[in-house]
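A favour, since you know our structure tokens better than I do. Just paste the record in under my message, thanks.
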Amino acid sequence: MFYQKLSKFFASDIGIDLGTANCLVYVKGQGIVLREPSVVAIAAGTNEVVAVGSDAKRMLGRTPGNIKALRPMKDGVIADFEIAEEMLRTFIQKARQVVPWSRRILSPRVLIAIPSGITEVESRAVKESALHAGASMVSLVKEPMAAAIGVGLKIEEPSGSMIVDIGGGTTEVAVISYYGIVESRSIRVGGDEMDIAIAEFLKKKHSLMIGERTSEEIKIKIGSAYSLGEEETMEVKGRSVPTGLPKTVAITTSEVREALKNPVNSIVHAVTATLERCPPELAADLIGSGIMLAGGGAMLKGLDKLLAEITGLPVLVADNPLQAVVNGTGKMLEEMNVALEKSNSGAAFSR
């Protein structure tokens, strides 16, 4: 109790969207202070951290043999405990630089958004990593709840709201009513699976090897989930599979849409399966409120139109979809006592 009273004056509260592709950090009273790729570069053999975040991402696919650039998060959970801990420590330290010196006296209290489908063991790994990285207290909130709060859905009302949060490693689908998740589905398909699908398509159809940065660039520039009527072409550079030499090919939007078919269908199925299990009264509410898309994957062109056509419901893309989850943690921090008590994320910060 004494520590909690002191922390009101001498500790900073931090909200983290610990994503597979990107990590965003919110500091109470300051807003979003950090947006970094979830990438760490280490020295081979020693695991000594060479770079974290943007600096490390620039090394992906371009590092010499003595340096490895890797992602410590996979499918929304920690794949490498030690590297994830170092990444969190770096991000927490950077975030604390923006707070007044008086609030750096005590270690920060941290709220982390996690996928709704992860296990107790995986949840514990996230909490322990944050504690080892310098947090004094850690609490967890489910990503769809954080995203719903972040985009401004009326979760406090006894009527249905639906959020689809498409991140790098997972897609979280949830129907929320009166501060609770009534029905949900979490699948380990997201932006990363889309990038892999594009790379595999080019290898199979054009005998071209490309890296994940190139796949992501293709997805962003000409990727789509629904025919938008305009056919675009993009030149892609990579390595020829049969010769091993540099090669350039031209690909079209329809080809990329074909490449993305499987991951997009998985997301659509997650949405329809959640709707099928939704109580009739809440399903009726969705006719008016519709579906809200958040996360980086929400920016895939035409995905809203495809979901609207299949479900018959209005589909909206959130403003700043990449920031939905971290903004949700921020709102919860700003109104900590009310939000943490009423959400199903855990009632309070805990050691």
The mean pLDDT is 88.
